[in-house]
């Protein structure tokens, strides 16, 4: 391959960089920086740390840099069997959203989150925060 062809190929790779962003399926088997479950939306990487009395969401861009949540709003719907509860999320720290309630640490627990940042575009994703990660082989 000559030098010109190499440069064209490299340029094409660089222009397609955003297409290489992680998907929720890829992030599902990775623990986040705070030990939580990771997911991806079109604009964000989300990490959920679920405890018996609170849900902590940490927001990152697709380069895993913190995204400010100062003007963000959000809610989470928590499902366990027939039980359903709504949790209002409030900003905390630099890149966090927090909600409180009573959450059974059950692998069947599901959390659907909807967040709106200052840009007004809602971001939504689903989590299974107490599902164990697959074993590494």
Structure, described:
There is one protein chain. With 137 residues, this protein is mostly beta strands. It has an eight-stranded antiparallel beta sheet with strand order 1-2-3-6-5-4-7-8. Mean pLDDT is 85; it is low at 6-20. The protein is built from two helices and eight strands, in the order ααββββββββ. It has helices at 3-15, 24-27; strands at residues 37-40, 45-50, 54-60, 73-80, 83-92, 96-100, 110-116, 122-127. The longest helix is centred in the N-terminal third of the chain and has 13 residues, at 3-15.
Question: Any chance you could write out the topology, listing elements then pairs?
Answer:
Elements: H1 3-15, H2 24-27, E1 37-40, E2 45-50, E3 54-60, E4 73-80, E5 83-92, E6 96-100, E7 110-116, E8 122-127
Antiparallel strand pairs: 1-2, 2-3, 3-6, 4-5, 4-7, 5-6, 7-8
Structural class assignment: mainly beta
User: Using DSSP, what is the number of strands?
Assistant: 8
Radius of gyration: 18 Å
The major beta sheet can be summarized as:
8 strands, antiparallel
SSE succession: HHEEEEEEEE
Q: What is the helix content?
A: 10-25%
The rounded distance between the terminal residues' Cα atoms is: 38 Å
The DSSP helix count reads 2
Q: Which consecutive residue ranges, at least 5 long each, have pLDDT under 50?
A: 6-20
Mean pLDDT: 85
Strand order in the sheet with the most strands: 1-2-3-6-5-4-7-8
Shape: globular
Report the β-strand fraction as a percent range. 35-45%
Q: What are its keywords?
A:
2 helices, 137 residues, single chain, 8 strands, 8-stranded antiparallel beta sheet, mainly beta, globular
């Amino acid at each position: 391959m000559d030098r010109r062809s190499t440069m064209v190929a490299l340029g094409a790779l660089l222009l397609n960089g955003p297409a290489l962003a992680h998907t929720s399926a890829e992030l599902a088997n990775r623990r986040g920086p705070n030990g939580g479950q990771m997911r991806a939306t079109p604009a964000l990487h989300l990490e959920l740390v679920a405890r018996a009395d609170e849900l902590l969401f940490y927001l990152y861009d697709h380069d895993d840099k913190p995204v400010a949540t100062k003007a963000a709003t959000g809610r989470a719907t928590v499902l366990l069997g027939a039980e359903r509860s709504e949790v209002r999320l409030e900003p905390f720290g630099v890149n966090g959203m927090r909600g409180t309630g009573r959450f059974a640490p059950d692998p069947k627990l599901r959390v659907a989150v909807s967040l709106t940042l200052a840009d007004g575009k809602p971001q939504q994703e689903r989590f299974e925060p107490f599902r164990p990660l697959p074993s590494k082989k």
